[in-house]
Amino acid sequence: MTHWSSGQDTTLSRWNQGFESPMGHHWILQTISETNWRSSFFSQRHAFGSLPETKERPAKRVSNDDKEINMDYNKLANLLFPDITKSVADYEEHYPKRKLPPEAKVTRLGPSPTGFIHLGNLYGAFADERLAHQSGGVFILRIEDTDQKRKVEGSEEVVIKALDYFGIHFDEGATLDGEKGEYGPYYQSNRVAIYQTVAKHLVEIGCAYPSFATAEELDEIRQKQEVQKLVPGYYGEWALDRNLNYEDIETKIKAGEPWVLRLLSTGDPSETMQVEDAIRKSVQVHPNNMDAVLLKTNGVPTYHFAHVVDDHFMRITHVVRGEEWLSTLPIHLELFEILGWDHPVYCHTAHLMKMDGDTKRKLSKRKDPEMSLSYYAEVGHFPAAVREYIITLANSNYEEWHQANPEQPLEEFQFSLEHMSTSGALFDMNKLNDVAKDVLLKTSEEDIADFLINWATRYKEEAAPIFNRDRDKLIKILAIGRDEKKPRKDLEYCQQIFEFISYFFDEWFTIVDELPENVNAQAARAILTDYLATYDQNDDNGNWFNKIRDITEKLGYAVKMKDYKKHPEDYNGHVGDVSTVVRLAVTGRRNSPDIWTIQQILGEKSVLSRLQTYMGSLS
RNA sequence: GACCCAUUGGUCAAGUGGUCAAGACACCACCCUCUCACGGUGGAAUCAGGGGUUCGAGUCCCCUAUGGGUCACCA
Length: 619
What we know:
The protein is α/β, with parallel strands linked by helices. It has 24 helices and 16 strands. A four-stranded mixed sheet has the order 3-4-5-6. Helix 2 runs parallel beside helix 8. It is elongated. The protein binds one RNA strand of 75 nucleotides through helix 7, strand 10, helix 9, strand 15 and helix 13.
């Protein structure tokens, strides 16, 4: 907050503006034109990461051929931003430091409203959420809608709902009913005045300038650079518009030429610096020298500028973002440095990867629709399961902790950035499903049923009325085998559950499997004839199985599997074959949970009808 | 191409110079068993390669290779 101390070589006549800060410090804005301001701007060191000694900015703007450029920065700033009347200090006051305990972290998620959000985003969002909430901090949703071209109408709602579905809840920012919080607006498109105020300030201190280069001109530059095997970009001597004097600029602007605002970079990329990163410990980068675009032709900021301005004024402490931002980190650091602001703690996460053929690659919204969060909602993954899987991916020590504390909710786990992986992990659907089985075992069958009904209402319309009608039956079905010492774990996600239990409902019941190898149609009919003859709905499980045994023995099958394995030639088959025939008739499948239990749920009428129908179909 | 990041079994990974390199998922076999699932037992399977440093290296250094990312008026 206290960035501008008075320089050593100043006289009052050199200051052209002075402010009283809200904190009572004497703040002074000065123009670059006369004073050596660098000593005050660049002497500041940060808690995390530091820039090497930055080269002095020339007291006067000098063109590439060493000619002095006639430039009054205040005049230029007013020409560029005539409507901006507020100052950076005004915003400092308007967005005061948060009154939070020192350990509290303030994080933010900044989705762009394309309506698409995938598992990789959820992975980062989860880290943001845990960091903020386990430290008593604040978690903000900021909509990064600075690119009109990509904007999809109403997609904020999709994003908010998708995140909410997976248990990512925000304290501040955009919500379904407006914005919440003191640090808004939370849509970047509504913050343009703030960006432009900072931009104007950058112009005033000679650190930013308008550029009129057209796409064709930029292309030409790039081509020349490629021929000379130079790093492409608008920088150094290639940044021709650095040389424009006030009159040039005024003429172009009056003529209505479109312009962007560029950073006047002074970094020296031949130097190396280490930047602290909470996940990677330290990364090595080179100072930026690109005159990055800060404001686009339409006056709206690029990500780089919006990130610096917003994360500063929203008082964000930790920026969690994908490693694709590592390469532009120097631009951000330079901006923070120039503005005299402390940068947040950076947390660059590794990408979630996907197998594509036989190589891995970053999750892509275009290529991987099945990674989209909406897809997970469609097939009905349970949020608790996905959260649990995400945390095992994010902090691999979670699994061990969870084994030791099976009853504790994951909110009790101490999430840490240090345990996040620095190399990209492959998303493993097998593992997700395995995690889901355990999570669902701990979820009550009532809750599973309700979740299933909600899911069906949205994504499986034909099932919704049936589930609603038979909710009690549904609960009984879901409860099968859960109370044993070794409970069944066969529920993963809604679509899978639906398929798993569909045979209980006459609407979906069909015979899908074939008779076992040991049993032909005639033998099957014999088994079912005996089964029907002795069938009693009131039998208990033991009685029921005794009858199966009787039939097994009578028809020449082995009652004990071991006997059959020893001398298969002595038998027509084994008890498993007999029960499989019954199972096939009752469920349509060769595999299912305990037949007796299923029959209890189906009811006598339905069971008998299925047995008879199946028998009739055997010829 | 330049720059950055990464590299322990099929997958997720523990490991921070010193017992036979944890564990989980998946896989295979066997056991349990009316099928499946669950559970149990066992198995196969990893330090990318090469140089150093050291009494000793998955761990430290260098080189190479491979994979990933970035190089926009997109985020």
